[in-house]
Specification:
Blueprint (H helix, E strand, L loop, with lengths): L19 H35 L7 H37 L4 E7 L2 E7 L1
Antiparallel strand pairs: 1-2
Helix pairs in contact: 1-2
């Protein structure tokens, strides 16, 4: 028995999209993954903050709680910055894909209408 599993996230880097639709869909998937990562980064920082706050109460090994919490806050903040930069770049590429070069105008004529594309 032979079967093939296609996982879009693991597409090799040499597999280039040859259509606009394929390129836009791939960029949108990447954009959505980055948005999910941004949410997870906020989660990291939130858990770290909760650990630091919990270390102020009577818990065993309060210094360890404070240290691990601080590390999670730092990790979440660092990853948030990196993912935000990548997300902004992806957003710019999507806008670039969707913007049409030139100027498209529509106007009505006495008998019908006309579309004019100037570039």
């Amino acid at each position: 028995m032979e079967f093939d599993i296609d996982i879009p996230l693991l597409t090799p880097s040499y597999a280039r999209h040859t259509t606009w639709r394929g390129a836009i869909n791939a960029e949108r998937r990447y954009h959505d993954i980055l948005l999910a990562n941004l949410g997870l980064n906020v989660g990291y920082a939130s858990v770290g903050t909760a650990m630091v706050v919990a270390s102020t109460y009577n818990v065993d090994q309060a210094a360890a709680w404070r240290g691990h919490g601080s590390a999670l806050i730092l990790q979440g903040a660092g990853l948030l910055v990196l993912d935000a930069i990548a997300w902004l770049g992806s957003r710019g590429r999507i806008v670039g894909f969707l913007s049409m070069p030139g100027d498209l105008a529509a106007r009505s004529l006495p008998v019908g209408g006309a579309l004019t594309w100037r570039f």
